[in-house]
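Hi team,

As requested, here is the filled-out complex form for the adenosine-5'-triphosphate run. I kept the field names the same as last time so the parser does not choke. Let me know if anything looks off before we queue the next batch.

— J.
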Amino acid sequence: MYTVSPRAGDLFYVRMLLLNVRGPTSFEALQTVDGVVHPSAKAACMALGLLQRDDHWRRCLAEAVQSRMPRALRHLLAVILIWGEPEDGSDLWCSFAEDLSEDLRFHHRDLSTEEITDLALRELQSMLISMGGRSLPEYGLPAASVTPQDGPMQFDTVEQALITEARLPMLTDEQKAVYESVTQNLVDGTSGLHFLDAPAGTGKTFLLEVLLAFVRSRGEVALAVAASGIAATLLPGGQTAHSTFKIPIRAIRSSKDVCAVGAQSKQAAVFRTVRLIVWDEISMTNRKDLEAVDRCLRDVRKQDVPFGGVVFVCAGDFRQLLPVVVHGTRANSVMACVSRSPLWKFFRRHRLTRNIRLLSSSDSATYLRYTELLKQIGSGTIEQDAEEKVSLPAEIIISAEAPLNDLINFVYPSFEASVERDGYFASRAILAPYNDSVDAINETCLGMFPGSLREYRSIDSVADEDAATHFPPELLNQLDAPNFPIHLLRLKVGMPVVLLRNINPPRLCNGTRLIILAMGENVLRCKIAAGQFTEDEILLPRIPLIPSNADLPVSFKRLQFPVKPSFCLTIHKSQGQSLDTVGIDLSVGCFTHGQLYTALSRAKNAANVRVRIPGTRTRNVVFPEVLTED
Ligand SMILES: Nc1ncnc2c1ncn2[C@@H]1O[C@H](COP(=O)(O)OP(=O)(O)OP(=O)(O)O)[C@@H](O)[C@H]1O
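And here is what came back:
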């Protein structure tokens, strides 16, 4: 079919209809949607949802109002302002001000209308701040009377002291040695850089929480960051390292990258007073990011010593996945590790080796065997053949010759609605190394999941109108990128999905698992499935997204819900997530360092793991050079 430029007017829309309407016998039939004959091809395209309507955001909010959740509605407006960049934010505010403050009117009956409006604006402003947005007037909305401060989360000193007191006597000898070494620096006012080498289950989070509480109980500032949003949710007050330090997000990093923290900014003021920085999942962090933070802290704190003299504790496990280097070689991946940074020699290394989960397990013999297996797989000391293949215990293997449903039924014995079903998805998942297998497994699970299916087609467009003739919408629809929503999103109520963007970390980050509660035309009502914000309900709009994949032939924008089905996740996405039941599909084996170890170590017990492999052996990739140097 010939391509047509969007500048060709109706012809462009007729072509679009021809591609999407089945078996039309006349122009009238072509322009008929749900029994209504539309006056133009463009109007019919609108009605079919093939074009973004001018009033998209207004429709989205109008639909969300029906849920009668004013706080979620304010959150939705904040998401729209930041991600949607609507042309007229003020119009949206004016049209929905009443609905946006309904709960505040109810709870504060003594306040005047102006005071209620101001309260709603203040709440909206703090949401914008926590989501990394700008001030209300910059979006065309009225300013709130008080601008909420963008600073570190405040902690109750008494509560923090109670945490420290309760946990101190519980620390194991290994944990206590680290605690004493770090608190020595904090009490003496000396600087100190510590690296906690902690395999899964050895009480790393427990220990980091005590250290954070120690500083916060003294009324001092302790920052908790992690390489990924999901790992950040595990630490009290945790944020991603990127958002805390304003590290530039680049596909190709440079040694000259600087954090976007102005000397006069509030963030700089926090960095000048901070006593302790805790950085989790450091093994996934690119060394250039750590080096940018080092330069930033030296600069802001006016001390030319590593990290400006702050006490710094990072924790990680180099047996797990390494930083992702797009199209990188093995050497590129290894060189991207923080352990290859010139700063690494300043870090004092501590090891946690005792698996505390094991101690509390009822069947410690089985647990011990599984922990030993994990250790050997992670370190690459397990016996392997010339193809790097290793044997796994027969009891955890499901044959790849058997139907995929065997693995699905092990992880999800039933998809039928029950009181416990939602909790189900918090604690179980299928994992696979490649996106293609993940998509195929999700599709099979979706077919088995009860309920009626709703399809959401994205609206795709190129930024450059001149390129539009060469890249018609049906071609853009076929483009796909990692961590990017697909054109045809198929959903059912009650199913699990994973969020693909850091919308509001740590509550809603790239990797947060959600359950779909209701599906509207422009809004999804979901609840958070796992982690400290479990059960929180949110309203999610379609947002315009631009893929960061430089390999795509054209730069384009996709308006779609930022989610993907999550019955199955990639092993990369599962890092940092704790699961009770895990099914790993290795019909196509692992391809990079730490994948097998990361997948197997998501579960705490061999009885709850099944691995689908051809035969009895599967590939285990380990880069020993990363493990010797860390
Ligand atoms: N000293 C301790 N006394 C009692 N319980 C502990 C202690 N240390 C850790 N635990 C408990 O052991 C379990 C595992 O600890 P934690 O979650 O801190 O491990 P982790 O190293 O962070 O593991 P993962 O990386 O898998 O999340 C938790 O239930 C934690 O509360």
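Two things worth flagging: The mean pLDDT is 88. Residues 170-172, 175, 198, 200-206, 356-357, 578 surround adenosine-5'-triphosphate (CB under 6 Å).

Thanks,
J.
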